[in-house]
Design brief:
single chain; 4 helices; two-stranded antiparallel sheet
């Protein structure tokens, strides 16, 4: 990751205030699954119950791929949701 890039954090559990460092989370996904976009998006979907925009942006950065490609996969496959499931 470039030194000028900030690490993203997202509030996962609003009740407990727990936050996950997105950059680290994606690094862990990549370490476990390799740079396979669908597998990484599946892990993110399981973690958040949808694919948050901030996370998709970080995935694009981490995988060195255009954001439009990440969105394309995320919106093409029915297993993914880019809107929160309530």
């Amino acid at each position: 990751m470039k030194s000028s890039q900030k690490r993203l954090e997202i509030n996962v559990d609003e009740e407990s205030g727990g936050e996950i460092e997105i950059s680290k989370l994606i690094e862990d996904f990549v370490a476990r699954r390799g740079k396979f976009l669908i597998d990484i998006l599946s892990d993110i979907q399981k973690t958040f119950n949808y694919l948050p925009e901030e996370v998709l942006k970080e995935v694009a950065i981490q995988l060195d791929m255009p954001l439009i490609n990440v969105y394309g996969v995320a919106t093409f496959h029915r297993q993914f949701s880019i809107k929160p499931n309530r």
